Amino acid sequence: MIEFSAAPATLPHGVRVYAIGDIHGCMDRLVAMHEMIAEDIAARPVEHTTLIHLGDYVDRGADSAQVIDWLINQPPVPADATINLMGNHEHMMLSAVAGADKDAPGLWLTNGGADSLLSWGISRTVPPAEWASRIPRQHLIFLRDLVVSHRIGPYLFVHAGVRPGVPLAQQTRQDLLWIREPFLSSRSDHGAVIVHGHTPKREPIVLPNRIAIDTGAVLGGSLTCVVLERDTLGFLQS
Q1: 52, 79 in Cβ contact below 8 A?
Q2: pLDDT digits (tens, 9 = 90+) for 68-101
Q3: Pairing mode, if any, of strands 15-20 and 224-229?
């Protein structure tokens, strides 16, 4: 049973959003979360549901390849729409396998990329120039085509956050994927309530201008989903 409380914004009647924080190769937690969402939809039908994943599907956990394959093959959640956002770890991975930046492979490896490679059966001894050919093309296309933001009513869903003082339409890809400060300490009205992950905390954070739901699934914490409906919010955790 989800415990609901007051949300910082109000969605239109009949609209519900499920937004899931950073997954980082935690396949078991993701499957359990999708099952809980499916059960909630069955128990509490509503006109329109959207499932949003906030990025960071890969790195650090053991099952990055399996997570990507699961997302491609449509998780068993009867939502009307599913939106998959890009995280900074997907950004690092794509840069590393593209081969254009000689420093990108090293950066990715030191940030959990070695675990991701292993999930695709790729040893660290395999040279970076061969990585792309050993990862399924369907997986690479999925990662390449991820969007960096999605707006539903008064909420903007992004991976990391936004730069305070910059109109939402002018936010850079870099900030949407990577920013921490000055976003995290800002109490400014950003023009929408920002729902984001990227910076792990022990518990979700709900403020008037943002909702943070990276609760460190791969660090021994939980995988968190915020459920937004009308003027309320609640949380599911696995």
Answers
A1: no
A2: 999 999 777 999 999 999 999 999 999 999 988 9
A3: antiparallel
CB 150 within 8 A of CB 83: yes
CA distances from residue 120 to 29, 51, 93, 123, 131 in whole angstroms, order as listed? 19, 26, 13, 9, 10
Whether residue 166 contacts residue 185, with contact meaning beta carbons closer than 8 Å, is answered with no
Domains of the chain by range and CATH? 5-86+140-237 (3.60.21.10)
**Closest listed residue to residue 115, CA positions, set 58, 37, 71:** 58
Residues in Cβ contact with 229 at an 8 Å cutoff, skipping those fewer than 6 apart: 4, 11, 15, 16, 17, 46
pTM of the model: 0.98
Which residue matches tokens 């937690």?
29
The mean pLDDT of the chain is 97
- Report in angstroms the alpha-carbon separations of 172 from 92, 97, 148, 181, 188: 16, 23, 10, 15, 18
Name the strands in the sheet holding 155-158, side by side, starting at the edge strand that comes first in the sequence: 149-152, 155-158, 193-196, 210-212, 205-206
Q: What's at 98, amino acid-wise?
A: A
User: What is the per-residue pLDDT across 213-237, written as a single tens digit (0 to 9) for each?
Assistant: 999 999 999 999 999 999 999 999 9
